[in-house]
Amino acid sequence: MPRFELHPQRRVTVVTGASSGIGRATAELLGSAGYPVALGARRLDRCEETAAAIRSSGGEAIAAPLDLLDGESIDAFVKTVESELGAIEVLVSNAGDVQPITTVGAEPAEFARQLGVNLLGAQALVHRVVPAMLERHRGDVVFVTSEVALYPRTNMAGYVASKAGLENFARAMAMECEGTGVRVGIVRPGPSNTEQGTTWNVDDVNTVVESWQHWGLLRHSGALLPSALAEAVRAMVAAPKGTRYAVLEVQPEAPVVATD
Hints:
It is built from 7 helices and 7 strands. By secondary structure, it is α/β, with parallel strands linked by helices. It has one domain: NAD(P)-binding Rossmann-like Domain (Rossmann fold, 3-Layer(aba) Sandwich). Helix 1 crosses helix 7 (226-237).
């Protein structure tokens, strides 16, 4: 039986949605751990700042523009990474967008756009990157999803549908990749302190919060820091040979309530 190395010393890593939040924290953590990191997002200036910081600390990192709604952008991004860093060994599919839309009221174009970013773009990047991993019989693919994939929330129709689809896509991919040396896993965050939702107007925020309270979806005020999710991603891609972490769900700890 042939033996394939799962963990070569130099593991070139792509992180999408790397301009802020979980993506940026993941790129910083993996970069500090010795992974050559390629940061991809539409906000290139932010990715360049993070890549420069990684390099100044002794790591290896580049930034390149990436629009997951544009097939030509995806192809150009991958070619840049392969040219400047080498073959991609780790893909962290993290890019996502959420806007406050309902199932009935959502404009079809906006609903489709969110599915495009969160699900279809992820598949397009997998289609471009993973075949080479399969040929080499090694690689890691991590999909950052959301607890809404299992526990839907109101007023997030596009996000809920796309994250549920992404989780099932990842599960099917893991089955198809079994025995190939390519590992596929899911990091599923609970409520997190990121930039998502910060562009919503006050009326939308109030409407969403009132609806979530009605359905008992706000258990406590705790929220995860992006660094906590980055640690989960690192654990998944650094799992020892012969091990695959299928799903890592990370939830925020509730604030301690004094009883006296």
